[in-house]
Amino acid sequence: MRIALYGKTIDAEHAPEIQNLFDFLEISLIEVLVHKSLKKSLSAHSISIPDKVAFFQDHNDLKENVSFLLSIGGDGTFLDTILLVKNLGIPILGINTGRLGFLSNTPTSQIESAISDLLNNDFSIEKRSILRLESDRNHFGENNFALNEISVLKSHNSSMITIHTTLNGKHLNSYWTDGLIISTATGSTAYSLSCGGPIIMPGSGNFVITPIAPHNLNVRPIVIDDDAVLTVSVESRAETNLVALDSRSKDLKNGEVLTIQKADHKISIVQLKNQSFVNSLRNKLNWGLDKRNH
Fold first, then answer.
1. What Rg, from alpha-carbon coordinates, does the chain have?
2. Which of 67, 175, 239, 250 could form a disulfide with 163 if both were Cys (CB 3.0 to 4.6 A apart)?
C-alpha cells in the first residue's frame, strides 16, 4: 500500500501525534509519499521522517498506485487536495488539526486506528460532486474545480452588484446583492450555510444558489438539479469584481460570462466507522445539545 500525505503547517501541539503517524506507517511497511509543502513544517518540529519516504509536488506525481491521500490540517487544507487528486479517484481521508472539521473529521488522537481501518478495508467511500467553472479568460487554468462552492463577489467598495443569472439557458434572476454562492451539497455546510442556505445531503443530486445580503428580501436560496447549467455575469460600478473557487479567487470583469456546472469526475472521501455526514451535522452543529442543562 502507498499513502500520500498532504498538509501545509503542523502546530507544535500536534507534532507528537504526527511523529506517531510516521512511526506507525513505517512499522506497518506502508510506502509513504509526503508533499513538499509539508516537509518544511515537519523539519521545523524535528519530526523524524523515515529514509524511504519519497516526496511529491503535484498531480502528476500521484498517478502511480497511490491507495489513499491523507489531508493533515483543517477543511481548507482538505479543499486543496482536490487539485492534487483531480480525476485520479484517490480516496481522501481528512486528519483534523484545524477547528470545525466537516471534511477533516478524524481527530489526531485516532490516527493509528484510522490507518488500521484502511489496512483492514474497514471503511466506506462517499463520492462527492464538484463544480467546474468555464469562461473565456480561463481564470484558473486546469484547476477550475471547486468542492465546496463557486462564489461571485463584489469588490471592496460598498456598492451592491447586479448578477444576471440563467439556468439551462432561461433567465432565472438578476440578483442585486453583495454576491452569489453556487454550492455543492458538500459546501452546503460552509459559506452557503452562513448566508442562510439550506443543508443538502450528499448524494441527493442537488446544488444550491445562495444570494449574499440581497437587496430584495423575498429573494431566497434556491435548490437546483446538479445536472443544471448555470451562467452568470456581473454588472457593477467597479471595473472588476471577484470570482472564487473555494478559497482561490481571481478578478472578474464586468459583463464577463461564467458557466458553472457539475464536473465530469467526483471526489472520493473516506468515511471510517461511526463517521457520516449526519453524524458530523449533529456533532459540529451541536444538534440536540441543550445548554440549559449545563
1. 20
2. 175
Tell me which of 51, 61, 75, 80 is the catalytic residue.
75
- Answer CATH for 2-121 from 3.40.50.10330, 3.20.20.70, 3.40.50.11930, 3.40.50.1010: 3.40.50.10330
Q: Is 227 a catalytic residue?
A: no
Beta pairing, strands 68-73 & 92-96: parallel
- Cell 503517524 appears where? 21
pLDDT at 156 over 90: no
Residue type, 273: K
pLDDT > 60? residue 294: no
Return the CATH number of 131-264, one of 3.30.530.20, 3.30.110.70, 3.40.50.300, 2.60.200.30.
2.60.200.30
Q: Which residue in the block uniquely carries the three cell numbers 467553472? A: 133
Helices (H), the chain: 15-27, 36-44, 75-85, 111-119, 191-194, 277-284
- The confidence band for 271, taking pLDDT boundaries of 50, 70 and 90, is very high
- The closest of 36, 77, 76, 79 to 58, measured between CA atoms, is 36
- Annotated domain spans of the chain: 2-121, 131-264
Residues 6 or more apart whose CB falls under 8 angstroms from that of 69 comprise 3, 4, 5, 6, 62, 81, 84, 85, 90, 91, 92, 93
